[in-house]
Design a protein that fits this description.
284 residues; alpha/beta; Rossmann fold; 9 helices; globular
Length: 284
């Protein structure tokens, strides 16, 4: 796949860049960021893709997380895509709110008009982002992990659990664990998928976890959650995902951290642990 370079610069002995390409599934141009560690000069390296949350672009994780220092030490390539399609003809939230439309693609394939013309972030992650990365950068597609934050944590859990052959390791920061029982999820899936909630189950992390039939062959999932997160009780509900994993036999390490909120101070505190979690599994 052909990509356009928007900017590149050295970073911790490696290289960080921002790129754009035409997306057929989203019917618009899409942007993503890549950090290539110095070890890539000697061969292909493992890759961790980070799916960002509401209001974010491909820049937030790369600018705020501090992940590049640890990725350079561990020899991991980092990938961060944008969170939604964009463009003059891409519809936004009809009420102008932050939690739907632009920067709120929810990593699903919309079926309802007018969203269905552009909002196919699930297919984008699975069908287009991967060749954009692996055709143009020295990442090893056989050693690929997936993580994300909030809305992106929901995306990481639903996509990663469905595609263990593509993503060998999985983690999340403060994920929306149940779109069926979250006001954010109910609003977004209602618009994108319509009122029939039976069609929502494939994009609910708890329902996907509960349906896994080969749990014993899956690697441990790591989730970190701040105890002072203002969205914890109403929007995120990690206890429901914990129960779903217990039901299906999935291995989960859910860590609660007193005093931490929902933002990048929290993510930057624990990003090293997540990258070590991924590299241990991807090097096995």
């Amino acid at each position: 796949m052909s990509i356009e370079t928007l900017s590149e610069t050295n970073c911790f002995g490696g290289r960080i860049g921002f790129y754009r390409h035409a997306s057929a599934v989203n019917n618009c141009d899409m942007q993503f960021a890549v950090f290539v560690p110095p070890q890539a000069g000697h061969g292909k390296v493992p890759v961790v893709t980070f799916l960002s949350g509401l209001t974010c672009t491909e820049e937030n994780f790369m600018v705020k997380s501090g992940a590049q220092r640890y990725a350079a030490e561990l020899g991991i390539m980092l990938v961060s895509p944008d969170t939604s399609p964009r463009g003059a003809d891409v519809p936004d939230d009809p009420d102008g709110d932050y939690d739907f439309g632009l920067a709120a693609g929810f990593y699903l394939n919309a079926t309802e008009e007018p969203w269905s013309k552009h909002f196919h972030m699930y297919d984008y992650v699975m069908q287009e982002l991967q060749p954009a990365v692996f055709d143009n950068f020295p990442g090893d597609a056989g050693r690929h992990g997936l993580t994300g934050h909030s809305m992106g944590g929901h995306g990481a859990l639903t996509i990663g659990l469905k595609h263990p052959g593509v993503f060998r390791s999985l983690s999340a920061f403060a994920p929306i664990c149940t779109t069926l029982h979250s006001p954010w999820g109910q609003k977004a899936l209602g618009y994108y998928l319509g009122s029939d909630t039976s069609t929502w189950h494939e994009y609910d992390s708890c329902e996907v976890a509960r349906s896994v039939s080969d749990a014993s062959s899956r690697s441990k999932i790591l989730i970190d959650q701040g105890g002072a997160d203002p969205y914890l009780a109403e929007q995120l509900k990690p206890e429901l995902f914990e129960a779903a994993c217990a039901e299906s036999g999935l291995s989960l390490e859910l860590r609660m951290h007193d005093g931490y909120d929902h933002g990048y101070y929290f993510i930057s505190t624990f990003i090293e642990d997540h990258l070590k979690h991924h590299v241990e599994l991807l090097r096995a």
